[in-house]
Amino acid sequence: MEKYSHLLNPEMNEVVKEVREMRMKISEECGHDLNRLLAYYQEVEKEMRKSGKYKFVDPEPPAEEFASKKSTQGEAAD
Asked: 62, 69 in Cβ contact below 8 A?
């Protein structure tokens, strides 16, 4: 339980409450439509990237995709 003891902090509870309220507001604005929510957050990401204020780490491709690309590199086509 020590790992989550910070969640018992009243200030943290207020932050969590505020975040949940904002998420609900955004969801309502998107009509609780998953595709619209995804588009909204992708647009927010795009704007944040353009601002240069934030750093992003792009995910690496899945291991199986990487392995299949790696195995075909340098091989001659039939």
From this structure: no
